[in-house]
Backbone:
């Protein structure tokens, strides 16, 4: 009975953000809008925490049927350890970014446009994590896509608009591909409920092409190399909190879905070659993304390219989980590793974008070569950047280290040492591009320092501690994640394949 | 959680939390920051103290924090970690103090001290890490926290340094990570255990393990600066001095070395590593690094860079000791972890002081810095000497154990590496010391800003570390010394109790300790301005207690202290006293009398000490002390000639030290340790005898190693020459007698060589000496000649052990006779003005000189005849040797005649003031000392106990005739030769280095 009442909270994770979006359109006062947003963000975090607490052993799959309609017609929501963790990451990040945005969008005009879109994005994200059927996922993806595009275009500069437009087109293309795949699935199995699909799927050309289409769509949205071309401009030109959310959460949503389809729902059609193919693309992403990040001249672009590289690590999952000997892919060590990676990266990357936002705001530019002396007038932003960098490089003690450790471990245990080389090399490249920024930041601007433009600019724009704190908190969280990984691993034990858990669902 | 499980964590936090708090302090909150630092330092040390006492009591301290399943963050205190933890804790305190003084008034200090504390926290974490993963975590943390310190200055050089540092350490970290992950996948949790994790798992694939080992060592080698992974270290010198000090002494470099120890001993297990064949490769790499680093250091003019390359070289001692894989070598390696830390931090403190106070960054700019900053330069000197491996500084102990350990496992090549490294170290450190102490300053120094030579916070830390490293060397056998601690660790690793190879034996009589201490105490008094004058005046009397003790000590009262030694000690005391009295008068108006007295006292202490020392360590310590301090006497006059002579002297001394080091190490491992009397000398392998032969031969002026002698002896002030020629050369002789298996084993080759070289020297030195124009040079050659006879006599002892009991007494007589006579002759040179024809005292002086000359050639009724006939009688079984002895007397006669001639000429040419011509000029302490010595030279030989054996023979007709005819022939030859118009040019004193004057500095 307790489960029943707790599960009632599940639809609220989607409902609350939608409500918040509407409310923030209606309310006109900046102060009220922000306080209500904060309240909503807090409440949804609490809800997710409650849900987490309610599933202490996490030995089942929890399902909520909206309005009692049930599959295949109604809207079902489903949650397990994996999706709950991603939900938690999302809500926590949303809360922190929410606080940051309050101070970041202090100007009313932007603020009016920002908040509704922001909440729409959150609703889409939450929906994508808990949707139980393929079509609802499509809806969630569209919500995310539209809101994200609009948010990228928020600043209204020319480059931002171009980037947003490109992002929109890519997003639409991806969604269409996905939709096409879903249609094929429906043609083959007559249902869109993931759990039902999971039990019925057999390897067939039709299912294969469906998987192919779905994968192309989702990979496009996840920006896997070489389909990453849209990501750097979009992420680099958005406002800081938006960049953070895009890099930390949005790409992860589509990756999560990819994971679900490959490892679980459409698993029988997956072959070792295709899995390895994704792995190779991931490796290429690591190397190319890092290299591009090293070459780029702008800080935010660097961080965006870093996202491309880091996403490459996620795709190590497929060769490691699917070509190994493990019979149940979802409880595989590689899944644990990748999930951990997602969380660590989300925290670190969001922190990094916030730091970059502060640097951009205080210097008026984000050209890396001109960031000399940053350590003296933006120490907190630099500290945030460095801590997040530690996690991205995968240095201990940090969440990134644990994640990388788990991945390396999985690779070695599977005997696939070549991925080890790539991952370690990627770490070095990450160290190179992050070290480059920090090195310049530590230098004293020898001539500028005395004449003073660098010194006066930060004084004028001297940012409040308020703006520095959210990023720092996230970076610290990314580091602290390295100290106790156990509870997350316990939760992940409960990620259950849908086809196994079909019967055990709780209404 | 009780205290035991919290303590290791608390130690790390005691550095970590202050670090975080310091970040939050405002830039101007000077005292807040200092208090935070201090609290951190003190609480850290207190906790370490608690930990040590706990571990002694056998308690287990372990903090365990679960990160992942089968992956714990473990902080564990074992003996090895305690070693490193205490080193870090103590040096952290000192470096913080130093850094506060160093960075006074600069920017960004909160940042600096924050990262500084974090860096120490990471080091403490490394020290306490209980498994490889924890080690890895703190290892990477260390990289991150040191980076901001390296780039602290923010200029182009330090940014470059930071970048290169990051590149190297990141790659190293990745390699280490790869190794750790791989190993973890193979074996599970990697807790450090005493005998290694892996040796207990035989089913593992050795190929994999080798590759993992390579990864781990490569990762650790980056921080330990193993060639070719050392590139970052010299460049990282761009950091501020306290950072360099900490980086080199404790934090980064040592973390790597410590990691190597951990991997070999606690992960792989030493025997397993050896079975895998990995130790040899590592040892080779380390050896290469040692030599390579030293060679690179030679060519650096930047002080800090030179020190950096020195670190590259020195840190590899640790890896070498570990990789040699014998218990004793392990001790040497591990103890070097501490010793090198203390010494190197001192060097960097001093380099920082030079830079901060006087703006000196280059070696060539160090000219005269010793006079402006004596304390700092003294600290630098002692540390540098320790780096070379000279006793009694801590560095010697490490080298000694490394040497003995390598012999224990029969890795002879390691001895070559150690010897080469010592030589190279001497080559790059000694010139620095020379420049600092003995060269005049280039420009006027900047004005003093402090009461002391620099800020007290900059001065105190190097003083303390200097005291520490001296203590670590001198009291190495105490149970609280690093050495004993390391022996404990090693015993645990090898699972058995070890025999300590360095035994220091307390002298049997307390007054014998005092005779060594009194000169040193006076020397200390010399350093204090208020007592300086008194000390200079009373310097000669420091020998008086020795004299009295030796005179009134009954030889039977103890067994350790043999009769020969007693005579030599008596001789030494007499000579030091008389030469000292002479010198005080002679140098009364000298500008540098302070410096002279300083080295005089040091030499005196060394001379007494080596005579009374009862163990190898003390012997070599005092031998070294005497040899090095004599340098100061030789170059006293400061002329180009003296400098060149000093340089030659130093080169030979260093070569001698190295040869002796190797020889004594060999003696130790084959003959056992303990008192000198206990050492089994007959067990020494042939190469030890050869090395002893030449090592001490250098000191004794043996032909082929004598080149320094005719250059160095004449340039010193007269009393110093007398001591050098009369007494100090005898140290070489004493060395032979002490360590060669005389009277025990027949060593034909060594004995024959000694005889050949000895007699060869005897004759050739006559030829070289007779054409000299400087009486002092002539006397120096005469010394070579006489020492040749003594050497040949020793050689006879080696050749015919049965002769040794009587022979030794005869040689002793001869040595005493020569010492007294030669010193007196040298002192007589000081009276040249009084020898002028119009001086009223000239007859008195001439009579003494002639008496000395007669004694030297061994005419009847002088001491010389006793010495010579004793030698002849005791070697009577060796016919040809006794035949040759009279012929040497011809040579001696020629030299003495020439000496009288030269003195006469010098007296004639000297300009005489009226005061010198009066009798009053003779009634002064100088003449008194000389006169006493002359009298002693005449008769002393007859009254020493050993003479009883031979006195009967002296008055036989045979002996009288035997002493008479060579002298007659000598006089004849000389008179003939003198009439011939000899227009030969004298053999230059620097016969072996003719072109040396091209670059006078």
Residues:
């Amino acid at each position: 009975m307790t489960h029943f009442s707790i599960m009632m909270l599940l639809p609220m994770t989607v409902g609350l953000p939608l409500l918040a979006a509407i409310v923030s359109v209606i309310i006109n006062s900046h102060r009220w809008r922000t306080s209500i947003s904060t309240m909503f963000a807090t409440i949804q975090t609490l809800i997710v925490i409650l849900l987490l607490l309610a599933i202490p052993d996490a030995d089942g799959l929890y399902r909520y049927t909206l309005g009692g309609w049930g599959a295949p017609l109604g809207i079902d929501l489903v949650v397990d350890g994996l999706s709950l963790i991603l939900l938690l990451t999302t809500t926590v990040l949303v809360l922190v970014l929410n606080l940051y945005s309050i101070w970041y969008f202090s100007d009313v005009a932007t603020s009016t446009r920002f908040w509704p879109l922001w909440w729409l994005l959150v609703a889409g994200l939450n929906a994508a994590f808990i949707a139980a059927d393929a079509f609802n996922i499509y809806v969630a993806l569209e919500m995310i896509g539209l809101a994200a595009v609009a948010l990228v275009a928020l600043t209204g500069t020319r480059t931002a608009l171009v980037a947003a437009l490109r992002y929109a087109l890519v997003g639409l293309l991806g969604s269409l591909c996905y939709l096409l795949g879903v249609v094929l699935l429906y043609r083959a199995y007559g249902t869109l409920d993931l759990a039902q699909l999971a039990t019925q799927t057999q390897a067939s050309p039709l299912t294969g092409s469906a998987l192919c289409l779905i994968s192309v769509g989702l990979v496009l949205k996840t920006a896997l190399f070489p389909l990453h071309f849209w990501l750097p401009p979009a992420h680099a030109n958005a406002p800081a909190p938006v960049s953070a959310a895009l890099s930390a959460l949005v790409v992860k949503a589509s990756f999560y879905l990819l994971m679900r389809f490959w490892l679980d729902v459409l698993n029988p059609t997956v072959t070792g070659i295709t899995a390895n193919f994704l792995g190779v693309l991931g490796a290429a992403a690591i190397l190319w993304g890092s290299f591009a990040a090293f070459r780029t001249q702008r800080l935010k672009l660097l961080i965006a390219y870093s996202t491309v590289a880091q996403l490459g690590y996620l795709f190590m999952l497929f060769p490691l989980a699917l070509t190994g000997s493990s019979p149940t892919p979802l409880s595989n060590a590689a899944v644990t590793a990748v999930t951990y990676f997602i969380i660590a990266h989300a925290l670190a990357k969001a922190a990094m974008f916030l730091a970059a936002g502060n640097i951009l705001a205080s210097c008026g530019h984000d050209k890396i070569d001109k960031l000399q002396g940053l350590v003296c007038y933006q120490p907190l932003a630099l500290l945030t950047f460095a801590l997040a960098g530690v996690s991205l490089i995968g240095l201990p003690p940090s969440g990134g280290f644990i994640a990388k450790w788990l991945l390396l471990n999985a690779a070695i245990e599977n005997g696939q040492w070549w991925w080890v080389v790539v991952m370690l090399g990627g770490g070095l490249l990450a160290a190179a591009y992050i070290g480059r920024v920090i090195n310049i930041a530590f230098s004293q601007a020898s001539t500028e320092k005395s004449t003073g433009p660098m010194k006066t600019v930060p004084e004028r724009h001297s940012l409040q501690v308020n703006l520095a704190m959210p990023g720092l908190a996230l970076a610290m969280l990314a580091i602290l994640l390295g100290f106790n990984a156990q509870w997350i691993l316990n939760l992940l034990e409960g990620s259950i394949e849908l086809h196994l858990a079909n019967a055990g669902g709780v209404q | 959680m009780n205290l035991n499980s919290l303590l290791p964590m608390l130690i790390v936090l005691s550095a970590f939390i202050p670090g975080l708090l310091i970040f939050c302090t405002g830039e101007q909150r000077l005292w807040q920051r200092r208090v935070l630092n201090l609290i951190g330092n003190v609480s850290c040390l207190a906790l370490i103290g608690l930990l040590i006492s706990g571990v002694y009591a056998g308690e287990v301290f372990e903090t365990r924090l679960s990160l992942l399943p089968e992956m714990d963050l473990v902080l564990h205190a074992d003996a090895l970690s305690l070693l490193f933890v205490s080193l870090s804790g103590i040096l952290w305190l000192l470096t913080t103090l130093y850094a506060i003084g160093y960075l006074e008034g600069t920017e960004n200090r909160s940042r600096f001290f924050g990262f500084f504390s974090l860096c120490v926290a990471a080091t403490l974490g490394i020290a306490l890490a209980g498994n490889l993963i924890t080690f890895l975590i703190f290892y990477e943390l260390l990289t991150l926290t040191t980076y901001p310190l390296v780039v602290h200055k923010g200029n182009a050089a330090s940014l470059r340094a930071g970048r290169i540092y990051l590149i190297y350490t990141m790659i190293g970290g990745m390699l280490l990570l790869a190794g750790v992950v791989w190993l973890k996948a193979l074996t599970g949790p990697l807790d450090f255990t005493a005998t290694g994790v892996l040796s207990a798992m035989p089913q593992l694939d050795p190929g994999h393990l080798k590759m993992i080992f390579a990864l781990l060592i490569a990762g650790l080698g980056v921080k330990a600066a193993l060639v070719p992974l050392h590139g970052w270290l010299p460049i990282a010198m761009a950091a501020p001095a306290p950072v360099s000090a900490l980086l080199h002494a404790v934090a980064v470099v040592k973390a790597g070395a410590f990691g190597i120890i951990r991997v070999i001993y606690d992960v792989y297990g030493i025997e397993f590593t050896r079975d895998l064949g990995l130790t040899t490769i590592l040892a080779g790499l380390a050896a290469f690094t040692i030599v390579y680093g030293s060679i690179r250091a030679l060519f650096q003019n930047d002080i800090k860079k030179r020190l950096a390359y020195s670190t590259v070289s020195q840190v590899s001692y640790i890896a070498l000791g570990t990789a040699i894989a014998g218990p004793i070598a392990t001790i040497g390696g591990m103890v070097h972890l501490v010793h090198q830390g203390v010494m190197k931090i001192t060097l960097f403190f001093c380099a920082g002081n030079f830079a901060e106070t006087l703006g000196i960054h280059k070696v060539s700019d160090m000219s005269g810095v010793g006079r402006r900053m004596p304390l700092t330069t003294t600290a630098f000197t002692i540390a540098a000497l320790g780096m070379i491996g000279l006793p009694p500084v801590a560095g010697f102990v490490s080298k000694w154990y490394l040497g003995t350990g390598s012999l224990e496992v029969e890795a002879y090549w390691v001895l070559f590496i150690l010897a080469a490294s010592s030589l190279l170290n001497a080559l790059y450190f000694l010139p620095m010391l020379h420049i600092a102490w003995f060269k005049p300053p280039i420009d006027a120094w900047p004005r003093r800003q402090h009461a002391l030579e620099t800020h007290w916070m900059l001065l105190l830390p190097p003083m303390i570390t200097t005291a520490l490293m001296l203590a670590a060397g001198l009291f190495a056998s105490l149970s609280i010394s690093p050495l004993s601690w390391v022996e404990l660790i090693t015993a645990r690793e090898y699972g058995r109790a070890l025999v300590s190879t360095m035994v220091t034996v307390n002298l049997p009589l307390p007054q014998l300790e005092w005779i060594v201490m009194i000169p040193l105490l006076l020397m200390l008094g010399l350093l204090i301005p208020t007592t300086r004058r008194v000390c200079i005046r009373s310097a000669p009397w420091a020998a008086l207690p020795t004299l009295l003790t030796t005179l009134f000590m009954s030889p039977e009262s103890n067994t350790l202290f043999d009769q020969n030694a007693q005579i030599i000690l008596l001789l030494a005391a007499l000579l030091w006293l008389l030469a000292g009295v002479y010198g005080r008068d002679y140098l009364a108006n000298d500008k540098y009398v302070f410096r002279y007295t300083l080295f005089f006292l040091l030499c005196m202490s060394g001379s007494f000490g080596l005579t009374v020392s009862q163990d190898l360590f003390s012997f070599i310590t005092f031998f070294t002390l005497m040899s090095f301090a004599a340098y100061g006497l030789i170059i006293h006059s400061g002329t180009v000639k003296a400098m060149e002579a000093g340089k030659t002297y130093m080169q030979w001394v260093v070569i001698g030290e190295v040869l002796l080091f190797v020889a004594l190490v060999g003696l130790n491992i084959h003959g056992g340790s303990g008192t000198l009397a206990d050492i089994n000398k007959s067990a020494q392998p042939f190469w030890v005898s050869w090395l002893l032969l030449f090592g001490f031969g250098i000191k004794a002026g043996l032909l082929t190693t004598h080149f320094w002698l005719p250059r160095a002896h004449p340039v010193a002030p007269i009393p110093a020459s007398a001591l050098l020629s009369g007494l100090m050369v005898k140290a070489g002789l004493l060395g032979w007698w002490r360590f060669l298996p005389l009277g025990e084993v027949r060593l034909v080759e060594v004995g024959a060589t000694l005889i050949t070289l000895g007699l060869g020297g005897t004759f050739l030195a006559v030829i070289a000496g007779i054409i000299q124009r400087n009486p002092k040079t002539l006397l120096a050659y005469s010394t070579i000649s006489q020492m040749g006879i003594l050497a040949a006599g020793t050689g006879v002892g080696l050749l015919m052990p049965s002769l040794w009991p009587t022979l030794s007494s005869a040689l002793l007589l001869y040595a005493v006779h020569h010492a007294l006579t030669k010193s007196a002759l040298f002192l007589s040179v000081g009276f040249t003005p009084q020898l002028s024809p119009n001086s009223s005292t000239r007859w008195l002086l001439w009579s003494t000189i002639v008496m000395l000359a007669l004694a030297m050639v061994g005419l009847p009724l002088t001491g010389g005849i006793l010495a010579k006939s004793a030698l002849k009688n005791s070697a009577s079984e060796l016919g040809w040797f006794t035949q040759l002895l009279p012929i040497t007397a011809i040579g001696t006669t020629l030299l003495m005649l020439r000496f009288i001639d030269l003195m006469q000429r010098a007296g004639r040419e000297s300009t005489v003031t009226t005061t010198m011509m009066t009798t009053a000029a003779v009634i002064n302490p100088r003449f008194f000392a000389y006169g006493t010595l002359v009298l002693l030279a005449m008769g002393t030989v007859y009254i020493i106990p050993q003479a009883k054996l031979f006195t009967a023979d002296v008055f036989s007709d045979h002996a009288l005739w035997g002493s008479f005819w060579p002298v007659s022939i000598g006089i004849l030859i000389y008179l003939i030769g003198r009439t011939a118009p000899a227009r030969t040019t004298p053999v230059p004193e620097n016969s072996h280095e003719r072109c040396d004057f091209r670059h006078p500095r």
